[in-house]
Specification:
Blueprint: H1 2-10, H2 13-42, H3 51-70, H4 80-96, H5 103-121, H6 128-133, H7 136-143, E1 152-154, H8 167-173, H9 187-197, E2 209-214, H10 217-227, E3 238-245, H11 257-275, E4 278-284, H12 289-299, E5 305-315, E6 321-323
Antiparallel strand pairs: 1-6, 2-3, 3-5, 4-5
Helix pairs in contact: 3-4, 3-5, 5-7, 9-11, 10-12
Bound molecules: flavin mononucleotide.
Residues 63, 175-176, 178, 229, 281-284, 309, 322-323, 325 line the site of flavin mononucleotide.
GO molecular function: oxidoreductase activity
Organism: Bifidobacterium longum
Protein name: Nitroreductase
Length: 338
């Protein structure tokens, strides 16, 4: 502290500001390097295939199967890529002798059972690539799987959409909806949902979030084509883009806070949309450089903002299916420290 006070009192103001900036940039660099090391060592990147990373792959590819199973215009024999990948991952899992009582393993075998059952139900033979993907041990695991861990569920009508839902009702009833009624969404209802979501807390109440509400069909189509995670569905009647302003943050240690505040706000917005009985689906903005640039140009977004997520919005269509997206038990993610 004494050195800091000495420097501040004895060097010209502009020079002092430059030194402070240099210190911030150095700290930012060091923190990013450490983050880089943590991520590159532990994420499920090629070459990092421990049990946890393999479980990530199992959940990732199983969700693709669930999505394919939930389509209204179901395409028999879909999914050669995720089925092949699940075959490789499950073989790997069993050859390491990992437990079959792990969430990702149960989800994967359950998703594959749902795939078989769906084909049986509609009288279609399984595609050749399915039969070629799994050995006898895995086929036994699939056969013995618990159906509640994957598959699809159906969207039911709200029991009473005019009465206010409690927070627990909202969390229990909201799901990602990707097929909507073919009708516009009221702008004022979306505005009311955004107003409600403004109750979300942010660090020091800085409120870095911003929302673009897109109704233009061509822009929605272009934006989601760049995004890439909406293949096989009709484009939604409305698309929200949540971003967060970097200018709301003032220290290198706050570098990830746009994502935290933006994420909390987005969840509040999803809840608010559900409270107005609108269907919604969060959509990632995990862009590569090309997608980032194209989206910024399309929507006129400067580098000052970070992408948080899109949210597709529309009127719920009763009776359509959605992926079950079964959740882990709370105790498996909780550590109590006494
Ligand atoms: C940040 C984020 C990004 C997502 N991106 C996509 C996406 O690109 N495409 C998609 O179909 N679903 C996407 N989802 C939806 C998830 O698949 C879904 O939330 C998850 O399976 C849990 O299911 P639920 O929302 O029905 O509870 C995303 C969800 C979140 C939170």
């Amino acid at each position: 502290m004494k050195i800091k006070a000495f420097v501040r009192d004895h060097i010209p103001g502009r020079m002092y500001e430059k030194l402070r900036r240099l210190k911030s940039l150095l700290l930012l660099f060091v923190l990013f390097m450490k983050q880089d090391r943590r991520f590159s060592k532990n994420a499920a990147l090629p070459g990092n295939m421990g049990q946890k990373q393999l479980e990530t792959q199992l959940i990732f590819f199983s969700h693709q199967i669930e999505k394919g199973l939930s389509h209204s215009n179901f395409r028999p024999g879909f999914g050669s890529r995720p089925i092949y990948a699940l075959g490789v991952c499950l073989k790997n899992w069993n050859s390491h002798g990992y437990s079959k009582d792990i969430f990702g393993f149960k989800v994967a075998t359950s998703a594959l059972k749902a795939y078989i059952d769906k084909h049986d139900e509609i009288g279609c033979v399984l595609p050749d690539f399915f039969n070629g993907a799994f050995d006898r041990e895995i086929m036994k695991d699939i056969d013995a799987s618990d159906p509640s861990f994957s598959g699809t569920s159906v969207i039911s009508g709200s029991e009473n959409s005019s009465s206010m839902k409690t927070y627990s009702q909202i969390l229990n009833s909201r799901v990602s909806i990707r097929e909507f009624e073919d009708c516009p969404v009221s702008e004022s209802t979306i505005e009311s949902a955004i107003s409600l979501a403004m109750r979300a807390p942010t660090v020091c109440n800085r409120q870095p979030q911003a929302v673009r509400v897109i109704f233009n069909k061509l822009i929605i189509k272009q934006a989601l084509t760049i995004q890439g995670g909406w293949r096989g569905y009709e484009f939604p009647p409305a698309l929200l883009l949540v971003t967060a302003h970097n200018s709301s943050f003032n220290n290198a240690i706050e570098r990830n806070e746009p994502y935290v505040d933006g994420g909390i706000f987005s969840m509040a917005l999803l809840g608010a949309l559900e409270s107005y009985d609108l269907g919604a689906c969060p959509l990632n903005t995990m862009f590569d450089i090309h997608q980032d640039g194209s989206t910024r140009r399309l929507l006129n977004i400067s580098e000052e903002e970070e992408f948080i997520m899109y949210i597709a919005v529309g009127k719920k269509k009763v009776g359509v299916s959605h992926p079950r997206s079964f959740r882990k038990a709370a105790e498996t993610v909780t550590t109590v420290i006494r």
